[in-house]
Amino acid sequence: MKIELKIKRAGGTNITMADNTEISFKPDETGAHVAEVANPNHVQRLLTIPGYVVYGTSEDQPAQGPVETKNATEPGTPSNVSPEDVAPPTHPHSDDQKADDEDGVFLSDMTDEELLAEHIRVVGGKPHHKAKRETIIAAIETAEDAAEAASKGSAA
């Protein structure tokens, strides 16, 4: 099934699902960023995340009813996997400091699930279970600044 990502990044967007399946959203001839997603569990999970829609529908008119696919079970995918077992995809981080950010995605615009995934990727672990969004964002920015400073220091 074709899924469209409404967030458009230069060159497209690559995501990794919880089972390490890579999905690439690339611009098509109309400029829409789309990917063919064969696994029905992945389709169902993506459609629960704002910004992902069935190709050809708008955000105002999401797909109705259960998602149907030609290939009901993908080889290597257990039939007892539920949507709760499939973690949200992780996105490459956009630089929250730049005013001219090309892809337009800021940490403050991420969903809680995307923010959690970004924290795990950048900081190296889950945030405290009582941490507020602002605290999580600050931790991500601090870790990125430290990594950038370290890379500049090693390049000199």
TrEMBL record:
Name recorded for this polypeptide: Uncharacterized protein
Bias kind Polar residues: ranges: 70-82
Source species: Roseicitreum antarcticum
Domain of life according to the entry: Bacteria
Region: Disordered, residue numbers: 56-110
Bias type Acidic residues, positions: 98-110
